[in-house]
Design brief:
Length: about 220
């Protein structure tokens, strides 16, 4: 069985067909990239898979369950990195990490995760005092502290400088190596090529190409 199986997924906002019939099969342990330009339907698709947005139609299975009816137990197996996390700006990095860790039954050590994302020196700072790139790393840290089986990353490195991006890629490769299934959206071809085993290219709510990133990259 697959970690994620999607057939005929659609979602329309008033006047906009954001997702127009998408099929996906994502294997356990894969790093799967959904690559496409702004407005292609990446966030909408991922939000539906995360259980944060209702679909109009289609069959969707995520870790064996329907994300349209999320349970607490199911949520605890999934890690989510949203595009903009505005949680608790007054908490310090260490405080918010410890808080999140208590929500999950098999959490990672918060200090270890802070180290993983390169925020050890900022661990005592309030989230609102951090730069954009540092906040993004907090987002990622919050997504992985629960030791999820399946991790969603929506545009994880938008706004990163090249050095931070490389470090982030190393972090993701490490999580993948440990067996975490990862679904990421990106508009950077290089990010998909570097990280993913499989890539689906999305445009105007449809998958227009899918396969091995090296093959797709050669043609883009
Ligand atoms: P991407 O993540 O690839 O940028 P989105 O899924 O955010 O794409 O958006 C797909 C389309 O749906 C775009 O045309 C966008 O403007 C529209 N859209 C997204 N969210 C909403 C919303 N909440 N209400 C109305 N239209 C939306
Ligand atoms: P939801 O209540 O489903 O979470 P959002 O918080 O995404 O919706 O959006 C709140 C409002 O902003 C909605 O009225 C939506 O139509 C609008 N909106 C959000 N994102 C977009 C977008 N990308 N394009 C057009 N409208 C949007």
């Amino acid at each position: 069985t697959h970690a994620i199986q999607v057939r005929g997924l659609t979602k329309r906002y008033s006047g906009v067909e954001a997702v127009a019939g998408i099929d996906l099969e994502i294997e356990h342990g894969a790093v799967f990239a959904i690559l496409g330009p702004n407005g292609a339907g990446k966030s909408t698709t991922v939000e539906i898979l995360e259980g944060y947005r209702k679909r109009d139609s289609g069959e969707v299975s995520v870790l064996g369950a329907d994300p349209g009816r999320p349970t607490r137990q199911w949520r605890s197996r999934i890690g989510i990195v949203l595009q903009t996390n505005q949680d608790a700006p007054e908490l310090t990095v260490r405080e918010i990490m410890r808080l999140y860790a208590t929500y999950y039954p098999a959490s990672r050590d918060p200090d270890e995760v802070i180290e993983m994302v390169g925020l050890t020196e900022s661990a005592g700072k309030r989230v609102r005092q951090l730069s954009g790139g540092q906040r993004r790393r907090v987002d990622v840290a919050l997504g992985v502290v629960g030791r999820p089986e399946l991790l969603f990353l929506d545009e994880p490195t938008t706004g990163f400088d090249p050095e931070s991006r490389r470090r982030f890629w190393d972090l993701i490769s490490g999580l993948a190596h440990d067996g975490t299934t990862i679904v990421l959206t990106t508009h950077y071809l290089e990010e998909a090529e570097t990280l993913a085993d499989r890539v689906a290219v999305i445009a105007q709510g449809k998958i227009v190409a899918a396969g091995d990133p090296a093959t797709l990259g050669g043609r883009a």
